[in-house]
Each structure stands twice: as structure tokens, then as C-alpha cells.
Amino acid sequence: MPAAKPRARAGEPPLLPPARGNHDDAPARAWTDAFCVGNGRHGALVLGDPRDETVIVNHHALTWPDAPAPPAGGTPPLLAGRLEAVRDLLLAGEPEQALALLSGQWPHYHPRRFHPAFAVRLRAGRAGAGEQGVPDGYLRTLDYPAGVAAVAWRDRGGRTWRRTCFVSRERDVVVQHVRAPAASALDVVLAHEVRLDAAPPGMDVAVAASARTPAEAVVTVRVRYPGLASGYAGVTRVSARGGRCHPVPAAGGG
Predict the structure, then answer these.
(1) pLDDT tens column, 16-70
(2) Which 3 state secondary structure label does DSSP give 83?
(3) Residue among 198, 223, 222, 203 at smallest CA distance from 113
(4) Which of 158, 196, 234, 171 is nearest to 47 (CA)?
(5) Considering the entire predicted model, what is its pTM?
(6) Which of 36, 51, 23 is nearest to 116 (CA)?
(7) Helix (H) or strand (E) holding 43
């Protein structure tokens, strides 16, 4: 169902709805309302908060490590005839019942649930810390053909700010770009959060940040599943064109 037409704002809009896509005039309050971008391997959920952005990064191979491998020669039940009932349960907000319907005959070898890798947070620094509410001209969009999620708004001085996010097929990376108005200072605090609501509990998390150049830094997140030697890692490269990066030690993991 198409999103509602954005409320009229004074002045020239900083961002227009795409010809083929979706748009909203308020940030998402939960990941279920975020705009999704991806390339088939990596994905990202963009919530679109102008002062405290959350981009949840996913990978197609990340699943909960709580289901044993099925026995050799084991055959799962035929599920095609259950898909319509499963869809109805999901639409009714009953995911646990839907999962039980798909795995009821294989209770010890149920499908492993997917979980997010981590969330990348982009928080406004001291310059935007005191601002509240949805700013003037705010719009977030998702361009279907381009696969780009964008957010734009005007600050109190009428200047336009813009962020974009997409997942590169060629490089297989999640790309975020923040563009400040001309002659404006960009003050952003970047952080990672691993212990999200949908993530397995008890994970061991280590975060390390280092500066490669005055304008470039790298943040590495390493995660190990509880009681196992396996896990995953992610790397965020920060490039501040015309500015500086200041890595700080992470307190207590992500």
C-alpha cells in the first residue's frame, strides 16, 4: 500500500518522493517501519532519524546457533500446502504459531531464525544535540530502481541536510553518505550496537577503533556466540572529507 502523501512544508522541499518507490514524512519508530536496501547478501534497515540515525546491518548467513543439524538422511515435512496458513498467521502478528506450523513435525530441527549483525548509530554531536521533533522539510524516501534510501531535512537556519544509504553489488558493502550544507560543520558520533532485541543473548562483543589517517578511521566489531568458538565480524570505514576523525575506546563492547 503506498505511503500517505507528505505534509506540505514551507519553502522548496529538500527531497522529492521517487517516481517508483516509497516515502514518509516522519522517521521510523521501529525496524518494521524502516526502509530496506540490500544486494542479496548484505542488507540494511534505515530508520531515518535526522539526529540519531540507526542503520541495522544484516547478512543472509546470520542465524541463531540454537538448532542442531538434522540427522543424516532425514527428510523435512512437505511445507507447500501450509504456506497460505503461515502467511495468514504472520499477517495476524503470530510469528511463533507460524514457526510451529512450519516445524511441528521436526521439533528438534526447527528452522534457525535470522538475526541482525549490528546497528550503526549516527548521533548528532554538540551542534544538534538540543533540537527536538521532526525538522522542517523532513522526508525519507526509498527509490526502488536505484536501491537507495535517502533522508533530507532543513535545520533552523533553512539549510538542507541529506543522508543516503545503499548496498553495493560490486563491492558487497553497505554505504552511508552524510552531506552537510555548504560552510556548515558536520559533527557526528558513530557507534555500534550488537545486543539488539532480535539478537541471541549472551554474545561476547569486542569493538576496536583506530585512525588510519587524520580524516579516516576504522572500527572493527567482533562477535562470538555464547558457548561456541564461532561468530562473525564487521568492519566500518569512516572517511571525513575535509574533516577529522577522533576514535575513542569502546566501553563494554557494542
Answers:
(1) 999 999 999 999 999 999 999 999 999 999 999 999 999 999 999 998 887 666 6
(2) helix
(3) 198
(4) 196
(5) 0.80
(6) 36
(7) strand 42-46
